[in-house]
Amino acid sequence: MSFSQYFLTDVFSGYDVGTAFTRARTAVRRVSGRLRQEPQLDDNGDGLCNGMDGEIARQRHIGGAFVTGADVPVVGSAMPSGLLAGVNPPLWAADVTAMDGLSNVWCLITPPDYDGTGDLAEVSLTWNPAMLRYESAFTNATQAGAYVCTFQASTRQGSCRARCRVSS
After folding, report:
1. Which fold has domain 74-167?
2. pLDDT of residue 128
3. pLDDT at site 27
């Protein structure tokens, strides 16, 4: 996972530069585990990254300030942040839609001790018509701590994310 992946997804979805930066910074901090990567922004040209930055970026767009072309899928909701309870609690995402139809829905799991190296666990979610959501059991909570679950959906033409933090 990279800052530019999150940032450019939001820029191409019509967000202003400041909002896209803030959302991407939050996402990277969550998935970087113990590394706690900290992207920085200096939009006023003073050479410092501090609370004085962001106002100019929130007034700027890269490209059109609207979405064109194919629509990306939307993950409407995902399991709430909280404690994992029970044996193999379900990971779930609901209200997942796409204009072109969905090709896949899955969850990337960042464990509490993730140091930024190696692949993250990826769990495919399947449609549960009784619950009206995509879900799968979470079987990899082998250590205590906060796991970051990043829910994703894709079509052949795009993808999107929804994030939550769960603890075991």
Report:
1. Immunoglobulin-like (2.60.40)
2. 92
3. 84
